[in-house]
Automatic annotation (TrEMBL):
It comes from uncultured prokaryote. InterPro entries: REP-like_C. Keywords: Plasmid. Residues 94-172 form the Replication initiation protein-like C-terminal domain. It holds the Pfam family Rep_trans. This is Replication initiation protein-like C-terminal domain-containing protein.
Length: 257
């Protein structure tokens, strides 16, 4: 945890609910963004802590762990290539089905036929229990951003002693773990598809809570603006009241009868 903390001195650890078979867990949070999660103790204590980093944080975590803990194991590795082209999905789909047929790899496709609920197509190579599998999917449609953004993503779940071997592979080398994935990796760069470095923005818990507050109390804030005359006056009133919550006691009016 000390090594991870040095990645960003503005971050801090917060206690979270542990995964199954672990006694405790914590999340490394910078501002309102969760960067890493660690689980430790319990039935899996003999194997050491379980640390998770995804997206842009995955490589940062890999670098820290490799520097400070050379002898470690990984339970899952993901490597992806992002493409931006109108024909990207169709081209990658055709290529994957050809390679899957040649190597007798199980293939299945999920298609959303309703236009109003279309979150994109997904083609899977390899079964759900395979050590090496791949999915090609319309990432832009999934996130409801750009329909031409397509991702080819390899997923590796190493078994037993291979967990230690796989721990030192980089994002390119993992494509060589199976004959079919190696061929797929080679073919991915042959056509002039536009490759992109995609970063997915996700709302933090704070942002979601803030948006909900605005929606829930919009009428109250608008009434305050009407009575106070300016946004600055509304803000000043709110923060004054926050600092003097103990002064807001119930008021009683007594009238003679």
């Amino acid at each position: 945890m000390d090594a991870i903390s040095k990645v960003d001195y503005y971050g801090d650890w917060e206690q979270i609910r542990p995964m199954r078979n672990y006694d405790a867990a914590a999340a490394f949070v910078v501002g309102n963004e969760t960067r890493f999660k660690i689980n430790f103790g319990g039935q899996n204590e003999e194997h050491g802590p379980n640390i998770v980093g995804s997206g842009a944080c995955a490589q940062v975590l890999a670098d820290v762990v490799r520097e400070h803990f050379p002898a470690h194991r990984v339970s899952r590795l993901d490597s992806c290539e992002d493409y931006y082209h109108a024909d990207a999905y169709e081209y990658l789909r055709k290529l994957a089905l050809k390679i899957g047929k040649e190597h007798r790899v199980q293939c299945r496709e999920i298609v959303k036929p309703l236009k109003d609920s279309d979150d994109g197509r997904t083609l899977y190579l390899g079964s759900q229990t395979s050590a090496v599998s791949m999915r090609i999917y319309e990432k832009g449609k999934q996130l409801q951003t750009d329909s031409e953004w397509v991702r080819a993503e390899l997923q590796v779940r190493p078994q037993k002693d291979l967990k230690s071997v796989m721990a030192m592979l980089d994002a390119t080398e993992v494509w060589g773990l199976a004959k079919w994935s190696h061929e797929m990796g080679v073919q991915l760069g042959k056509r002039d598809l536009r490759r992109v470095d995609a970063q997915v923005y996700q709302q933090s818990d704070h942002e979601r809570a803030y948006r909900f507050m605005l929606k829930q109390y919009r009428r109250v804030l608008e009434n305050m603006l009407a009575s106070h005359g300016s946004p600055e006056a509304v803000g000043a009133q709110i923060f004054y009241d926050l600092e003097h919550t103990e002064d807001q006691r119930p008021k009683t009016s007594l009238k003679p009868i």
